[in-house]
Amino acid sequence: MTPLAASVGDYLVVRRALGYKLERAEKLLGQFVTYCDSVGVSVITTEVAVAWACLPADGSRWWWTQRLSVVRVFAKWLQAHEPATVVPPPDVFGRVEIPRAVPYLYTDAEVMALMDAAERLRYPLARVTYRTLIGLLAVTGMRVGEAIRLDCDDVDWDDRTLRVRSSKFDKSRLVVLHASAAAALKAYAVGRDELCPNPKAPALLLSGAGTRLIYCNVSSLFRKMAAIAGLPPRSGRCRPRIHDLRHAFAVRTITDWHAAGVDVEARLPSLSTYLGHADPKDSYWYLSATPELLALSVRRLDGLDIGGVR
Asked: Active-site residue 246, yes or no?
């Protein structure tokens, strides 16, 4: 192992102790170290960092900026131990707007279409697993990674709760299930055990091979299911993504609160806790990013009597 590779390992240990997952960073930094080794470089410089960040050559400036930012954070940490380390400047590629995706808000019919599309998968166990995964994400708003990491003993069938362990920012929480959701999950567990009595992992949700699901495979199969379900992109920035099941849950919850006439602002901290947001302000993003919710908020404000002025 080269000194630079060893430093990456130490860096990941320290940062993860602070609660960061760094899954993408680990992959990119591994590629960066391999590149440095291939060109015979052992000290980070702006030139070598930029040369690596610009791969592939036909990539977007946004992607190059993302790659360089991973190296910059690592270089800042490393510079304290290796003074010869150079931290690349942040504006190498100029000002780059981050193209945040527009949430694809699934209707109930679209969720059912996705679940039905899971029945077209090759392996019987994969069919029931992906049907259950989609339903679980739709009714709980869990992150995909959280659902993948669930183990069988994370389910409390009596209390109808799921224990989400060490999720984003190293936070853990309990997710309460509706009785119908708990019943569907129980039915899956029974069917899963019949199809795979000797799984290779303690995971709640198993792949067709009896192993824990892998995020990249889940994303790939979800795109396949979205195509089978006939869900087209709504715009260049609004395409069906599995993560948008979480967005749809949050928006539907807030919309239902509006319809019930409750104080949405007072309820948002509860939603933040349920979704596992690090800060309630993260939940406010749904209000500004979703035209439907923004319109509801405006209509509600129009109906308020503020200081005698309507």
From this structure: yes
258 flagged as catalytic: no
Judge whether 170 and 275 are in contact, CB under 8 Å: no
Question: 109-228 maps to which CATH number?
Answer: 1.10.443.10
Higher pLDDT pick, 182 / 274: 182
pLDDT tens digit sequence for 53-95: 999 888 888 899 999 999 999 999 999 989 999 999 988 888 7
> Catalytic: 247?
no
Active site residue 106: no
Q: Give catalytic status of residue 15 as yes or no.
A: no
- Tell me the DSSP string of 13-60: HHHHHTT---HHHHHHHHHHHHHHHHTT--S--HHHHHHHHT-STTS-
Q: Which of 243, 252, 258, 267 is catalytic?
A: 243
Mean pLDDT across the stretch 158-183?
87
Catalytic site residue from 106, 246, 247, 274: 246
Q: Which of 143, 149, 192, 247 is catalytic?
A: 143
Which pair of structure tokens corresponds to residue 14? Answer: 């320290």
- At 58, list the tokens: 């036909």
